[in-house]
Amino acid sequence: MRHVIALDVGGTGMKAALAGADGELLHQARRPTGRARGPEAVVEGILDFAAELRAHGERHFGEPAAAAGVAVPGIVDPERGLAVYAANLGWRDVPLRDLLAARLGGVPVALGHDVRTGGLAEGRVGAGRGADRFLFVPLGTGIAGAIGIDGRVEAGAHGFAGEIGHVVVRPGGAPCPCGQRGCLERYASAAAVSEAWAAACGDPEADAADCAKAVLSGDTNAVRVWRTAVDALADGLVTALTLLDPRTLIIGGGLAEAGETLFTPLRDAVRRRVTFQKLPEIVPAALGDTAGCLGAGLLAWDLLTSTDRTEESA
């Protein structure tokens, strides 16, 4: 059975799969990234993991994987196949595509940015299926974005497209590690809500999920913290939809797990802010933590499709 290898590399763990042509995950596996062992050990771990997946495919499906796709955090140069920079993993200019291709017997390998790859999956087979224009915004430790256009995700001229978390929504506000002040992710990421709620309730272990539960119980401090985040998020999203005019706005990540505790006030806040803009459908992400793997698989299949077309026209 023809299949591809899909790898989603995170700061703490790796998710992997063998994916069929219809997007089905034929085999799934997970393991720690092992970043405590250093950047070179992380790369070697990725290569070993990919080789194990290739061997599994040969044993169980009668042939090795036809291609591979890998999603990684940080700054990515997909054209040159470089993991340019990832603070969490200590990477600088790692030629990951070439290293993986060599370990996997020369098969084509696609390299993608983790959020854009997850957005590709949400757009094609998840919450944005059927939408010609979408914006995928996961609310996690930080906030990034994936701009979907006709079944692909726009990376930008330098690979920085979609960085909505660094849109300034509160000028002169909280300092951000990027060097600006008042960035969206300093107010509306899951990490920001966790920090604000921990300070408000006096429990350093409290997190955003605890805040959402307290909102449901009517805790006034929780409602204040939550409203601050929702208002900031709405401001950032309206800026994005003014520029991009998406048909569907997909919200994912840890904060989206609060369900309607987030989505009801967020839809209301965005609706109050739009004037001439068309209000997009605002929906929760559908694929959860499999989005990165599914997207990596789609990248691999896209490579094969383009190769097949080239061979047919030759």
Provide the descriptors you would attach to this structure in a database record.
314 residues; alpha/beta; 5-stranded mixed beta sheet; 9 helices; 41% helix; globular
Report on the structure:
- The chain is α/β, with parallel strands linked by helices and 314 residues long.
- Helices cover 41% and strands 21% of the residues.
- The chain contains nine helices and 13 strands.
- The strands form three sheets. The chain has a five-stranded mixed β-sheet, sandwiched between helices.
- Strand 12, helix 8 and strand 13 form a beta-alpha-beta unit.
- Helix 1 runs parallel beside helix 2.
- The radius of gyration is 20 Å and the shape is globular.
- It starts with a strand and ends with a helix.
- The mean pLDDT is 93.
